[in-house]
């Protein structure tokens, strides 16, 4: 039996189990890894891939434009195979999976071997699955209560979603007051016109959005156009 000591109030304190300490340390390492990855990325394209044959040329177009960190969303039946093809054929890309909604999704993503995972929201079951994993993970939050739940599981890097609809820059700054150590990746309403404004916030490590790869351009196979959008965006952000 682990030793227990009494607090100054006479209450018996429960000793931390080794598994609890290990889980906390693992989550901290995951979050540090995610921060480094997001900071290096700056802009993360949110990819909804409808046809498997688009996966590799899309990844190559993005990488050619200077955008290497990619979020493939689980919104289509081919998403998993698309991510697998990208990792196999475009090794320069850092491929993650978004729209992770439940523990079953998380298990599929973890087995795939991607670099990171992102969800649009959170549940206790999803957060528990993430703490039991070594996969760097950012839960989605829109409110202080959701952020408090994420923090209770050790997650201090979060996707702020939907960013504009959840209060925009003012909403983000409001969260920064009581939660000064949390880092965010705002997504939802972030685009070429306002990405620099979001990135100027001290608690923002990256932004996500679909403007780098419009659905119409993907369907048309306009890979050169997507590369040009990426180059223009990164040039503007560097100037800002």
Automatic annotation (TrEMBL):
Coiled coil: none annotated. Its EC number is 4.1.2.14. Pathway: Carbohydrate acid metabolism; 2-dehydro-3-deoxy-D-gluconate degradation; D-glyceraldehyde 3-phosphate and pyruvate from 2-dehydro-3-deoxy-D-gluconate: step 2/2. Gene3D superfamilies: Aldolase class I (3.20.20.70). SUPFAM superfamilies: Aldolase. Keywords: Carbohydrate metabolism, Lyase. InterPro entries: Aldlse_KDPG_KHG (IPR000887), Aldolase_TIM (IPR013785), KDPG/KHG_AS_1 (IPR031337). Residues 1-25 are annotated as: Disordered. It is an enzyme of class 4 (lyase). Pfam families: Aldolase. It catalyses: 2-dehydro-3-deoxy-6-phospho-D-gluconate = D-glyceraldehyde 3-phosphate + pyruvate. GO terms for biological process: Entner-Doudoroff pathway through 6-phosphogluconate. Residues 1-16 have a biased composition (Basic residues). GO terms for molecular function: (4S)-4-hydroxy-2-oxoglutarate aldolase activity; 2-dehydro-3-deoxy-phosphogluconate aldolase activity; aldehyde-lyase activity. It comes from the Bacteria. Homotrimer. Belongs to the KHG/KDPG aldolase family. This is 2-dehydro-3-deoxy-phosphogluconate aldolase. It comes from Bradyrhizobium diazoefficiens (strain JCM 10833 / BCRC 13528 / IAM 13628 / NBRC 14792 / USDA 110). The lineage of its organism: Bacteria, Pseudomonadati, Pseudomonadota, Alphaproteobacteria, Hyphomicrobiales. The gene is kdgA.
């Amino acid at each position: 039996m682990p030793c227990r000591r009494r607090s100054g109030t006479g209450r018996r304190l429960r000793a931390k189990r080794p598994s609890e300490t290990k889980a906390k340390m693992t989550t901290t390492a995951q979050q540090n890894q995610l921060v480094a990855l997001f900071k290096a990325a700056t802009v993360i394209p949110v990819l909804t891939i409808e046809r498997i044959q688009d996966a590799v040329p899309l990844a190559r177009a993005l990488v050619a434009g200077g955008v290497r960190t990619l979020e493939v969303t689980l919104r289509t039946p081919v998403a998993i195979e698309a991510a697998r093809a990208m990792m196999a054929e475009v090794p320069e890309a850092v491929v993650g999976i978004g729209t992770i909604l439940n523990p079953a999704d998380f298990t599929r993503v973890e087995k795939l071997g991607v670099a990171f995972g992102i969800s649009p929201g959170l549940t206790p079951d999803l957060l528990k699955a993430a703490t039991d994993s070594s996969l760097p993970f950012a839960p989605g939050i829109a409110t202080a209560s959701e952020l408090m739940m994420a923090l209770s599981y050790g997650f201090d890097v979060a996707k702020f979603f939907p960013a504009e609809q959840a209060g925009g820059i003012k909403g983000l700054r409001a969260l920064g007051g009581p939660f000064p150590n949390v880092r965010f990746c705002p997504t939802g309403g972030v685009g070429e016109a306002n990405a620099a404004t979001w990135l100027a916030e001290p608690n923002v490590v990256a932004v996500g959005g679909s403007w780098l790869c419009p659905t119409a351009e993907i369907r048309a196979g306009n890979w050169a156009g997507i590369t040009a959008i990426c180059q223009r965006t990164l040039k503007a952000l560097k100037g800002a």
